[in-house]
Structures are given as structure tokens and as C-alpha cells.
Design a protein that fits this description.
single chain; about 350 residues; alpha/beta; Rossmann fold; Ribonucleotide Reductase Protein R1, domain 1; 6-stranded mixed β-sheet; 12 helices; 13 strands; about 20% strand
């Protein structure tokens, strides 16, 4: 049973210390409040955290769907004693909780980043998902869903490919099966994929089409604004007839970046390379590409040679990450406060000097 859920020789090797303690392996297939649904060698069971685990767990260390755990079985249930090291983790800044990290999915091989081919298609949002996927360690694939409702998907596919930096972009339809054969190339036996995207993009409908049965609840989007409602209320790992595993997740209204610096750099590698080339023509060697005279980057933004919207998105994500680092690192926060104190002091000095000149 465990082999069907991705158990491997490498995991067996890593589990040896837990086996020596008399513990058994299991994979988390769903998570509810204080309760985890597990798949073990003998089948499905319910798990709860041991008191020691609760006491010692670090931030983000509680089991999430996709995790491999070490358990002590008893009757029809089990006590979760430890979480095995994660091969990959899709992590975001938890909504409304300041700087807390939230692990959305663990041990996934493929991150299926979904957006609908309707009025809600947003290249800037996909850049954010791509950055987080790169940071997770999973292989990203972009799925543009509801292709059957789009008269001509080709221009939209090309628009997304322009910001995807070589990541595969597939137009798919759960209604008529378009693109599902191509998607099957990433859904191999023993591999785990996660569906990520906003509400209403058709993630649950796609799971139902791939599994051949109505496993997940679905609902129609609002015609007025192409937005959907949360129909998936929890994360669930589902075994597909192909032998692959797919993890459906609730739609995310916001995706705060968390330690995704390398992911952002990967997503915007083309833009940064172009800026580095243009910077050689700037008047000043230390040009910050802001309001300096003779800036080749600003000239390229003005004439459209450099995509202004994509460049603004890159700057925005970098600032967001820098802010998160300052919030997380006391030394960085102190340095930032010192920098702004110097800026304000210089500003006050300029104001005083101007007043003295006016007098």
C-alpha cells in the first residue's frame, strides 16, 4: 500500500532510526483540525499528535498533507511521533498572520499552477506562483484550464509562455479532455502532483476528470467577475488510476512570498539579463535605474523595449521579500530603522538649510 503512495527505497533507508524505535511509516492524505488522515501499510487510519511532538514542534513543523510521518499504531488509529524530512515544501506567508510561514503541501514532485482561460487570467499572479514553486523544490507546470470556454486559447497561451521562462504551459479542459493526454506525461506512477491556484479555476473539476469519478465538490464561477467560491475546504491527497497521486488544495486569495528569493530570480532571469545588458549603456556606472539622467534601462522601459509591467512586478516582489527579511531578522530591522533615521535626519537638515537661505 505504501508503494502506491510514493514510498521508496530512499525513504525506507531514512526511516531506519524510527523503525528501530518500533514506529511505522505513514503518509498524510488529509488534514483536519487536530486530526490527520493517514495511509499506512495496513490501510487508512486516523492520527493525532503525541504530546511530546506538540511540545517540541517548530514553526511549520506540524504534519501537512503529503508529509511522511512516523506513527505508533493502536487499534484503528495512530499517534504521530515525528515528521520525516521533506523533499520539497510549497510554503507561503500565512494570510493575516504577519510573518508566520504556512506549508501548503509537502513532498510533491510537480506543482501544477492553475489559472483559468477567462477574465481572471493574471500574468502577475502566475509569476508569484512560479517563484514559490521554484523555491519549493518541485517541478512547475502551468495549466490554463477551461480551454473549452475560450474561443481562441493560443494568444493567451503565448502571453503566459512569455513570462514562464521555459516552464511548460498547457491549455486543458476537464469538460472535453483537451490537453489531458499531455498532462499525463507529468502524472507517472508513484509521483505526487499538487494543484495550486485561485478559487474557481477548476482544480476540483480537473481532479474529478483525472480520477474518473466525482471525488471533489465543484461549483460554477460567478459570471460577473469570473471569480469562484471555495469548494475545496481541505487539502487531500488522491490516488489516480494512472498510479500517480494528486493533491487538491483550497483556492488561495493571496500568496505571500516566503523565503523565495531564488525563485524570484529564476522567474525573472530573462528580465535581469536584459537589464544587465542595457546597464552597460547607462551614463553612470552606479546607475540605480531610477531617475538618473542617461539611464538606458529607463529609456528601454519608455519605448517598450523592456516590458514595464514585468519589470514593475519584479521590483515589487523583491521589495516584498526584502520587507519579509527585515521583519524576520532583528539585525536587518535595526539596520533599516537606522537607514530611515538617517534619511529623515538629512531631510530635516535640507529643510532647515532651505529656510535659512529663504530668510
Amino acid at each position: 500500500m505504501l508503494t502506491h503512495y510514493g514510498w521508496s527505497d530512499a525513504l525506507q533507508h531514512d526511516f531506519a532510526p524510527y523503525a528501530a524505535r518500533g514506529l511505522a511509516p505513514a503518509r498524510v492524505t488529509a488534514q483536519h483540525r487536530g486530526l490527520w488522515r493517514l495511509m499506512g501499510e495496513a490501510g487508512e487510519m486516523e492520527g493525532r499528535l503525541s504530546g511530546r511532538f506538540v511540545h517540541q514542534a517548530f514553526e511549520g513543523g506540524y504534519p501537512v498533507t503529503g508529509d511522511w510521518v512516523a506513527v505508533e499504531p493502536h487499534g484503528e488509529g495512530a499517534t504521530i511521533a515525528a515528521v520525516l524530512p521533506r523533499a520539497s515544501a510549497f510554503t507561503r506567508q500565512a494570510a493575516g498572520t504577519g510573518q508566520a510561514a504556512q506549508v501548503v503541501a509537502a513532498n510533491v514532485d510537480v506543482a501544477l499552477l492553475t489559472a483559468s482561460l477567462n477574465g481572471d487570467l493574471n500574468a502577475r499572479r502566475l509569476e508569484r506562483y512560479l517563484a514559490t514553486a521554484y523555491a519549493s523544490g518541485a517541478e512547475p507546470v502551468i495549466l490554463l484550464t477551461k480551454a473549452d470556454l475560450c474561443p481562441d486559447p493560443a494568444p493567451l497561451v503565448a502571453e503566459v509562455e512569455a513570462i514562464a521562462c521555459g516552464v511548460p504551459v498547457l491549455a486543458v479542459s476537464a469538460a472535453n479532455g483537451e490537453g489531458l493526454a499531455a498532462l499525463a506525461g507529468w502524472l507517472k506512477p508513484g509521483r505526487t502532483a499538487v494543484l495550486l491556484g485561485s478559487s474557481g479555476v477548476g482544480k476540483s473539476t480537473l481532479v474529478n476528470a483525472l480520477s474518473g469519478e466525482a471525488r471533489m465538490a465543484t461549483a460554477a464561477i460567478r459570471e460577473a467577475d469570473a471569480h469562484g467560491r471555495h469548494t475545496t475546504t481541505h487539502r487531500e491527497l488522491i490516488a489516480l488510476p494512472s498510479g500517480a497521486l494528486i493533491l487538491d488544495t483550497p483556492g488561495m486569495r493571496e500568496l505571500g512570498l516566503w523565503q523565495a528569493e531564488a525563485g524570484v530570480e529564476a522567474v525573472f532571469a530573462d528580465a535581469t539579463a536584459e537589464v544587465e545588458r542595457l546597464a552597460e549603456a547607462c551614463r553612470f556606472r552606479d546607475c540605480a535605474h531610477g531617475r538618473e539622467p542617461g539611464c538606458a534601462v529607463q529609456a528601454a522601459l519608455a519605448d517598450g523595449t523592456l516590458d514595464a509591467a514585468r519589470w514593475r512586478s519584479f521590483q515589487k516582489l523583491r521589495k516584498e521579500l526584502a520587507h519579509a527579511v527585515r521583519q524576520e531578522d532583528p539585525l536587518a530591522r535595526a539596520a533599516e530603522r537606522k537607514r530611515w533615521a538617517a534619511v529623515h535626519k538629512a531631510g530635516r537638515a535640507r529643510t532647515r538649510a532651505k529656510r535659512e537661505m529663504d530668510d
